[in-house]
Design a protein that fits this description.
Helices cover about 45% and strands about 20% of the residues. The chain has 10 helices and 7 strands. Helix 9 crosses helix 10.
């Protein structure tokens, strides 16, 4: 049962789905990709103001009604992608930001030029507030490219879940594929794959192809771990 733990399918709240029609198309696209669990992780930017809970939940309800009416084999979970700030951990702990499926896991992103120290500070802050950090699209951060051992440190020293986008994983295939992604996958340093889908064109759900490539290049166990087992661990803890 493939789960997409990072997607921007809720319309009207961020730079993802632009309207209700696109949201319906994205839900259909997820089903076509064998996705059965969808965590709706709209952007949350604490520095810009509160999370738009009312709009988000209203549109989530609309999505649920559409799924039921169409008989789509999808289960929706709440969540958000938090742009890290000093207030983020406290806000999540107070319930001002949605965690992944109301679990203690939070999806957190950083600016690409964020230094290593800030990522470790963030991990400690969330941990101190009883939360566990899922680091969104780890392939984007220059400090991790500079020293891949830092991915290991995130695992072992901070208990961070490292998420990589499916599009990056797909680019790792072949002799001249993405070297960072290939090396990280081979070393077992990636815990979770997700679409980070924003639409149905250039940033569409591509998890079926991702699953098949992982299975072919790294084995069925890794494919299942990144797209089925880890999401279940997150949602049921």
């Amino acid at each position: 049962m493939i789960a997409d733990m990072h997607c921007h399918v809720v319309y009207g709240v961020d730079d993802g789905s632009k309207d209700w029609e696109m949201t319906k198309q994205m839900l259909q696209k997820a089903v076509e990709n064998d996705v059965r669990i969808l965590c709706c992780t709209s952007h949350a930017i604490p520095a810009r103001g509160p999370f738009p809970w009312d709009t988000y939940l209203q549109h989530m309800q609309e999505m649920g009604e559409y799924i039921n009416s169409e008989g789509l084999p999808l289960t929706l979970y709440t969540g958000c992608e938090i742009m890290y700030t000093e207030e983020a951990a406290r806000m999540a702990r107070r319930g001002e930001l949605p965690t992944l499926g109301q679990s203690r896991y939070v999806l957190v992103e950083f600016m690409p030029i964020t230094d290593w120290g800030q990522i470790t500070v963030a991990a400690r802050e969330f941990s101190n507030h009883g939360l566990k950090m899922v680091c969104a699209h780890v392939e984007r951060y220059a400090c991790l490219h500079e020293d891949m051992d830092r991915l290991y440190e995130l695992h072992e020293d901070y208990g961070v879940i490292c998420q990589m986008n499916a599009s990056t994983i797909l680019r790792s295939h072949g002799l001249f594929g993405d070297k960072f992604a290939k090396k990280a996958l081979k070393a077992g340093l990636i815990d979770l794959a997700a679409s980070d889908s924003h639409n149905v064109t250039e940033r569409a759900c591509n998890l079926k192809a991702c699953y098949e490539m992982l299975r072919k290049d790294y084995g069925s166990e890794m494919a299942s771990s990144l797209l089925e087992d880890m999401p279940q661990q997150i949602l049921h803890r």
